[in-house]
């Protein structure tokens, strides 16, 4: 398929707000793809190429300075090959090699194709082709049950491969996709509630567990082989040997465990989140990697020695978890009593943790979904937002990028394009000198444009913000502004697609 065909479809999808029209257009595109084009094309549609990050930023793309082609000849396969070459470039001379690849591609691409390519690499392809829309399109194009397509994507963690199975194989093959030890599963996500009582009203009798200020981990064991995945399914096994050894020591041969990890100080209290994330290569921690020893706490189990548990209720999974992990179990109680739950939440806070998770006992593990079965409760409102821009500081902060422009996700396009980010406020509070230094070095690498006072950024950097609430405001398109916002931590373990929504923030008005 010509890349221009894909560009035209994505332009058409971006131009309509009707979900059915998006699904129809994407479905027709998917049906026209050759089998070996499906994975790369799906990656382009969600601005996540199969090669991952290829070491090319906005500045490198903007500085190519090559005349573009007039005739459309570039194919989906050509772009995939170029991305392979970019990803393979390493070591001495890699920058020059990447430049050569980019120049050749730019010369073969039309102006619209090059713009498309740049937006794919920058994660800026604003088509409204969110994963849910694309899953429906895959189901429509393949004439497969939507529920089967969604489940396969959740359990495989791979939208492209799910599309290949749905479009080129049988219904039986699609429905055979299940848990596989060693292959990451999209994690179950939580909604939020202002109080424990409000959470219990939603869940009924629940498991109330510590909510750590740590990093989500999913650990797979198959005999002596142990693999550790982040919440985005990046494999970080080589960075966390202590987690590998902890799971290898358990008396079971095959496991899939879900949990969190953080580091403790000399007194047994949790270290700052940045210190934990330093072990995952974030580069903004305050402790060196050798000073940080990670400890796992597991709160769920999806597989034990040949038995899949993902469709079992939480009550069954927790019984297995207690048997499997012992002292590595996340502290928790089972209760429907509000006073008991409040007391346990106070205990979690006193131990230095964020709050509690309240989980319905009758719920299966809904991989990749955010529902009301898991509810997080924190005493201070904290939300994950995306950084849209940063202003140059003044006074003592002169020369540093300081004041952050913050955006919330608008998944359905209530205030603009579906999947875009709606600005909800600014803050410079909570930024240490170390964070100021880090963002001043980092943000120009993902710059999209700048003015005299601000650097505008690719919306890929997630930051955890504490607020006292929101207030109505005509200044921002979402109709609200954050009250007393301050930075808690950068969350490089989270993708921008998982930040909190404008609808969640507007709910605070009530």
Brief synopsis:
With 510 residues, the protein is an alpha+beta fold.
Notable characteristics:
7-stranded antiparallel sheet; 24% strand; 5-stranded mixed sheet; 510 residues; 35% helix; 18 helices; globular; alpha+beta
Written overview of the protein:
This protein has 510 residues and is an alpha+beta fold. The chain has 18 helices and 19 strands. It has helices at residues 3-15, 19-32, 38-45, 58-62, 76-88, 94-108, 111-121, 131-142, 146-156, 159-168, 171-176, 196-203, 241-248, 273-278, 314-325, 338-350, 433-442, 502-506; strands at residues 189-193, 206-211, 215-222, 225-229, 254-263, 294-304, 307-308, 332-335, 355-360, 370-377, 381-392, 401-410, 420-427, 447-450, 454-457, 462-467, 469-472, 480-483, 486-490. Strands 11, 12, 13, 14, 15, 16 and 19 form a seven-stranded antiparallel beta sheet that branches. Strands 1-10-9-2-8 form a five-stranded mixed beta sheet, covered by helices on one side. A five-stranded antiparallel beta sheet has the order 4-3-5-6-7. Helix 2 (19-32) packs across helix 8 (131-142), helix 5 (76-88) packs antiparallel against helix 6 and helix 8 crosses helix 9. The longest helix is centred in the N-terminal third of the chain and has 15 residues, at 94-108. The protein is globular and about 70 Å long. It starts with a helix and ends with a helix.
């Amino acid at each position: 398929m010509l890349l221009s065909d894909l560009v035209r479809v994505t332009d058409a999808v971006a131009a309509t707000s009707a979900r059915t029209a998006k699904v129809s257009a994407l479905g027709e595109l998917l049906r026209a793809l050759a089998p070996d084009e499906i994975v790369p094309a799906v990656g382009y549609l969600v601005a996540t190429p199969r090669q991952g990050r290829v070491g090319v930023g906005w500045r490198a793309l903007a500085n190519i300075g090559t005349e573009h082609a007039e005739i459309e000849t570039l194919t989906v396969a050509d772009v995939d090959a170029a991305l392979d070459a970019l990803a393979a470039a390493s070591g001495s001379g890699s920058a020059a090699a990447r430049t050569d690849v980019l120049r050749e591609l730019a010369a073969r691409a039309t102006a619209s194709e090059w713009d498309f390519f740049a937006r794919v690499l920058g994660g800026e392809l604003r088509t409204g082709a969110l994963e849910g829309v694309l899953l429906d399109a895959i189901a429509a194009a393949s004439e497969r049950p939507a529920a089967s397509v969604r489940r396969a994507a959740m359990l495989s963690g791979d939208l492209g491969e799910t599309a290949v199975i749905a479009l080129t194989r049988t219904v039986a093959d699609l429905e055979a996709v299940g848990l596989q030890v060693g292959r990451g599963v999209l994690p179950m996500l939580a909604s939020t509630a202002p109080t424990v009582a409000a959470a219990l009203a939603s869940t009924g009798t629940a498991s109330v567990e510590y909510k750590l200020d740590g990093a989500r981990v999913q650990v797979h064991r198959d005999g002596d082989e142990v693999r550790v995945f982040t919440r985005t399914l990046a494999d970080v096994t080589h960075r966390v040997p202590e987690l590998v050894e902890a799971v290898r020591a358990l008396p079971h041969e095959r496991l899939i465990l879900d949990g969190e990890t953080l580091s403790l100080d000399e007194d047994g209290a949790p270290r700052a989140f940045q210190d934990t994330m330093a072990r995952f290569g974030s580069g903004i921690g305050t402790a060196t990697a050798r000073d940080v020893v990670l400890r796992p706490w597991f709160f769920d189990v999806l597989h034990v020695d040949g038995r899949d548990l993902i469709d079992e209720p939480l009550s069954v999974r927790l019984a297995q978890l207690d048997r499997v992990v012992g002292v590595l179990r996340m502290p928790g109680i089972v209760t429907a009593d509000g006073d008991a739950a409040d007391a346990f939440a106070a205990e979690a806070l006193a131990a230095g943790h964020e709050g509690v998770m309240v989980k319905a006992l009758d719920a299966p593990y809904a991989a990749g979904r955010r529902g009301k079965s898991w509810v997080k409760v924190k005493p201070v409102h904290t939300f994950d937002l995306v950084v849209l821009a940063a202003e140059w500081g003044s006074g003592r902060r002169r020369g540093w990028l300081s004041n952050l422009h913050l955006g919330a996700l608008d998944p359905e396009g209530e205030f603009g394009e579906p999947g875009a980010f709606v600005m909800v406020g600014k803050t410079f509070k909570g930024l240490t000198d170390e964070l100021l230094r880090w963002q001043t070095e980092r943000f120009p690498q993902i710059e999209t444009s700048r003015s005299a006072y601000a650097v505008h950024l690719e919306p890929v950097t997630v930051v955890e913000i504490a607020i006292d609430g929101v207030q109505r405001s005509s200044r921002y398109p979402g109709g609200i502004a954050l009250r007393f916002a301050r930075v808690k931590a950068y969350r490089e373990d989270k993708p921008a697609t998982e930040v909190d929504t404008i609808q969640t923030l507007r709910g605070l008005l009530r």
